[in-house]
């Protein structure tokens, strides 16, 4: 894997966290969400090259199935890197190709952190999955 060094700044400009109609059933225990899903979507908008930097906006949406809540995060980003990498991002954006994984991962890290805080505020399950500890392979436990 080719490793690219870049510097990115991210500014969250608008957040929205809403409990939906099914939330009451979820809180009362009538609705089982353990078999549900939490879907996260990201969309980049207005991506362009300005002053040897890639700038653009993003929208990150967390949707719960069943529909108990919805979280939206909007913001802007500025990316500084090698000219070839930046040109590749712009060319890909114009062709509607997926952005580089490094860019998406960096934005997801910011957005998932914000979404986890917002989910706690509205008492919805966190969009970050809870790690499940695995037992040691040799079935021995250190005490």
Descriptors:
alpha+beta; Bacterial Protein-export protein SecB; 143 residues; 3 helices; 4 strands
Set out the fold topology:
Elements: E1 7-19, H1 23-28, E2 37-50, E3 53-65, E4 69-80, H2 83-94, H3 101-121
Antiparallel strand pairs: 1-4, 2-3, 3-4
Task: Give a short summary of the structure.
The chain is built from 3 helices and 4 strands.
Question: Explain this structure to me?
Answer:
With 143 residues, this protein is of the alpha+beta class. The N and C termini lie far apart (40 Å). The protein has a 4-stranded antiparallel β-sheet with strand order 1-4-3-2. The protein has one domain: Bacterial Protein-export protein SecB (Roll).
Which structural class do you get from the secondary structure elements?
Answer: alpha+beta
Tally the structural domains: 1
Strand order of the largest sheet: 1-4-3-2
Question: How do the helices and strands follow one another from N- to C-terminus?
Answer: EHEEEHH
Helical proportion, percent range = 25-40%
Rg value: 19 Å
Major sheet: size, sense and barrel closure?
4 strands, antiparallel
What's the tally of helices? 3
The number of strands is: 4
- CATH fold title: Bacterial Protein-export protein SecB
End-to-end separation in angstroms reads 40 Å
Strand content: 35-45%
Overall mean pLDDT? 86
Oligomeric state? single chain
Give the CA-based shape: globular
């Amino acid at each position: 894997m080719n490793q690219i060094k870049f510097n990115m700044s991210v500014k969250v400009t608008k957040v929205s966290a809403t409990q939906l109609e099914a939330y009451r059933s979820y809180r009362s225990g009538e609705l089982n969400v353990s078999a549900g899903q939490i879907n996260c979507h990201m969309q980049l908008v207005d991506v362009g090259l300005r002053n040897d930097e890639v700038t653009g906006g993003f929208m990150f949406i967390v949707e719960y199935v069943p529909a108990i809540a919805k979280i939206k995060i909007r913001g802007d980003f500025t990316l500084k890197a090698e000219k070839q990498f930046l040109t590749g991002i712009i060319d890909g954006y114009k062709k509607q190709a997926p952005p580089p994984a490094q860019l998406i991962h960096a934005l997801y890290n910011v957005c998932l952190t914000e979404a986890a805080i917002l989910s706690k505020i509205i008492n919805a399950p966190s969009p970050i999955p809870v790690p499940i500890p695995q037992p040691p392979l040799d079935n021995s436990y250190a005490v």
